[in-house]
Recover the amino acids of this structure.
């Protein structure tokens, strides 16, 4: 490290450094040149060297614009509130992955130039409340990208101890990308307080829970210009998640996605039905609805999914004209729709005109019975290959 002293006072870029292979003493020596360091990117942080890293970073880094700390260790010492001397005036990018730092919002309140904030796999030891996070965000007027992803559902707001009313709503004028992972109540508290007029992509992953009732989330999406009046919706089932995707009607690249982490098919369907009913704006403008099966094995030809669950999913989609069904979903959905007879025939999907089916094996007779019932009710539909 003495070689640094023979060079002019150039800025130091500590990038792509792994504590698995690097000399800890050399890294600490670089960090001690705090007045020259402009970026820090450390990965594979572990408890023992991590303590030395934190100790070397208790002073201001006046030139630093980029900070990335990543770890997959089971336990790490919590970053102290004196980190970076408590101030980061030139930071533009912060990326913490698996790093506990409960006082981070306090530090970020000084980062007025911040444009990228990526907090991923936030451990419970690094939890901060949504009220604290909202106060932090209110100062980040240049923020363009926000990742806020918690490690487990243990990190959730305690509604019983809340004493202060929510702050007045404010605008994040530059935010274009927002990704959240956690309990829905946390996100509900965040979006109550923000407007994002330039938001293009909004991705949410909720841990599985009993109830999904998020009226503030629905209002937030409604008042975000690019997400108004969706024309298309895709409900996608995977082995570990179920999601609803709403591509932007006003833009070819913007979209909203709500995903629920759940491995049980009999839980996935009622959960996503709740989301469509209570956590999204009215879906009556959706004309094209896709039901997509991405399970690694067939599950829907068993009794795991009841007919009533499919009907509850379809209830908010009153304007759907075209229904696209994956091969694996056809039998269950048509059986459910076929239960609606007489005056109930159009109780769900009243505007339906066409069903597109992917290779509808063993289902033609069931489809014909449903088509005949709709025709008798004066609402004929056509069936085509998808």
């Amino acid at each position: 490290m003495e070689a640094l002293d023979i060079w002019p006072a150039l800025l130091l870029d500590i990038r792509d450094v792994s504590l698995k292979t690097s000399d800890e003493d050399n890294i600490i020596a670089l960090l001690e040149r705090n007045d020259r360091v402009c970026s820090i990117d450390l990965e594979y942080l572990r408890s023992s060297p991590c303590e030395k890293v934190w100790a070397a970073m208790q002073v201001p880094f006046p030139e630093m614009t980029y900070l990335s700390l990543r770890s997959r260790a089971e336990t790490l010492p919590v970053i102290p509130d004196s980190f970076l001397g408590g101030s980061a005036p030139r930071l533009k990018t912060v990326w913490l992955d698996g790093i506990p730092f409960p006082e981070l919002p306090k530090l970020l309140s000084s980062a007025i130039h911040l444009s990228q904030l990526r907090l991923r796999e936030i451990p419970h030891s690094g939890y901060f409340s949504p009220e604290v996070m909202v106060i932090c965000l209110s100062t980040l007027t240049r923020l363009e990208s926000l990742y806020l992803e918690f490690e487990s559902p243990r990190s959730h707001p305690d509604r019983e101890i809340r004493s202060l009313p929510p702050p007045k709503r404010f605008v994040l004028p530059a935010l274009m990308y927002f990704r959240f992972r956690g309990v829905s109540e946390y996100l509900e508290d965040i979006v109550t307080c923000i407007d994002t007029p330039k938001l293009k992509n909004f991705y949410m992953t909720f841990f599985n829970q009993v109830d999904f009732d998020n009226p503030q989330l629905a209002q937030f999406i409604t008042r975000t210009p690019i997400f108004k009046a969706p024309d298309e919706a895709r409900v996608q089932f995977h082995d570990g998640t179920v999601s609803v995707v709403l591509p932007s009607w006003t833009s070819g690249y913007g979209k909203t996605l709500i995903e629920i982490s759940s491995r049980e098919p009999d839980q996935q369907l009622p959960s996503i039905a709740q989301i469509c009913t209570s956590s999204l704006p009215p879906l009556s403008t959706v004309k094209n609805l896709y039901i997509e099966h991405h399970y690694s094995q067939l599950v829907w030809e068993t009794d795991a999914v009841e007919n009533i669950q499919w009907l509850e999913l379809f209830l908010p989609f009153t304007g759907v004209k075209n229904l696209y069904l994956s091969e694996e979903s056809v039998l269950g959905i048509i059986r459910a729709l076929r239960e609606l007879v007489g005056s109930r025939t159009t109780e769900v999907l009243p505007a339906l005109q066409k069903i597109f089916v992917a290779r509808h094996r063993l289902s033609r007779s069931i489809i014909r019975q449903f088509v005949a019932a709709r025709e008798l009710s004066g609402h004929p539909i056509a069936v085509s290959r998808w």
Summary: The chain is about 25% helix and 25% strand.
